[in-house]
Amino acid sequence: MREKTTPYLRSIAVSASIADQYYISESEPFADDTYNDPLHEDDHEVVKGLVHKYSNRALIKVSYQCAAHCRFCTRIRQIGNAEGTLTDDNINNIITYLYQHPEIDDVILSGGDPFYTAKLTYQLLQQLKEINSIKVFRIGTRLPLQLPEAFQSDAVQLLLSLIDEIAKRRPFYILLHINHPDELTEQALATIAMLRSHKVTLLSQTVFLKGINDNYKTLHQLYTQLHYTGVIPYYLYHCDAVKGIQHFAVDIEKEKEIATQLTATLSGIACPTYIIDVEDGHGKIPVPLNFINENNGTITDFKNTKHELK
Ligand SMILES: *Cc1c(COP(=O)(O)O)cnc(C)c1O
Ligand code: SF4
């Protein structure tokens, strides 16, 4: 995956926490041939662009294009490839599949970044909104943190008005992928505030990244700021088992310790669920934290006092 940033990101890359997410480092293996798909998305891609892995949910990859390329991307095997962009025929096939599978009630637009290809996402949503068996919509995006000015474009504004129309009848979630408080600049915060004025619920997703956010203080600050900004933390991921990005993976015991401390100190609604997406398996599995010790039958409370587990 080639290096790609935006002028905006370059302007804030004085922060090492931004630079390390986007600039190719010496520890990055040259691995273009070996990038793999440990979550087996490609095996569950039932029609081009639609991944049907969980019975009631479907993930639609609108394109493989993003404003910038994160070096730890789970889809590093695909991102930047023009072949991912949905054609009219691809969209028709996706729509047909969804009509034939009314058990799919929750649709997640992803990619690539659906807000980066706003016109195409608009075209897709125009058709998806006619399918009554879809009860919940989500869009995953990182664009507010990569190119906030894009949200002033006519294409994105038009997309947001369509989202508002859909959201009158059905819940619409925007999932922000954010990893570090330095990403919450004035421009990013203004963009998030603008999104909050639409009829959407804002959620966040974060991945533990070695040397970037693998400490309690950074994540506590991130989640406190998201809490103040009206974004509800959703998932905190262990880095996926993709070859070529493992230099970002953090030790699971360390992650458990940090997630335990976060749970002990953050407001309940400001605390994400720490999960691991199982390699060669099925499911985003919540990792048990360090509160309950079944071996000695104790429960440790938020003030570090041990109690008998009854
Ligand atoms: C993560 C994911 C979903 C959504 O899972 P939730 O736990 O409901 O957020 C759906 N499909 C695929 C393929 C996914 O990876
Ligand atoms: S924005 Fe998301 S899909 Fe795009 S490169 Fe970054 S992590 Fe991957």
What would you say this structure looks like, in words?
- The chain is of the alpha/beta class and 310 residues long.
- It has one domain: TIM Barrel (Alpha-Beta Barrel).
- It contains nine helices and 13 strands.
- The chain has helices at residues 7-12, 16-22, 88-100, 118-128, 143-146, 154-167, 186-196, 216-229, 252-265; strands spanning 45-47, 50-54, 57-61, 106-110, 136-141, 172-177, 201-207, 232-237, 273-277, 284-286, 292-293, 298-300, 306-308.
- The chain has a ten-stranded mixed beta sheet. It has a three-stranded antiparallel beta sheet with strand order 11-12-13, with no helix packed on it.
- A hairpin with a 6-residue loop joins strand 9 (273-277) and strand 10.
- The longest helix is centred in the middle third of the chain and has 14 residues, at 154-167.
- Bound molecules: pyridoxal-5'-phosphate (PLP) and iron/sulfur cluster (SF4).
- The site of iron/sulfur cluster has 10 residues, from loops.
Task: Give me a quick take on this structure.
By secondary structure, the chain is of the alpha/beta class. The chain contains nine helices and 13 strands.
Secondary-structure map with pairings?
Elements (H helix, E strand, L loop, with lengths): L6 H6 L3 H7 L22 E3 L2 E5 L2 E5 L26 H13 L5 E5 L7 H11 L7 E6 L1 H4 L7 H14 L4 E6 L8 H11 L4 E7 L8 H14 L2 E6 L14 H14 L7 E5 L6 E3 L5 E2 L4 E3 L5 E3 L2
Parallel strand pairs: 3-4, 4-5, 5-6, 6-7, 7-8, 8-9
Antiparallel strand pairs: 1-2, 2-3, 9-10, 11-12, 12-13
Helix pairs in contact: 4-6
This protein binds pyridoxal-5'-phosphate and iron/sulfur cluster.
Iron/sulfur cluster binds next to loops.
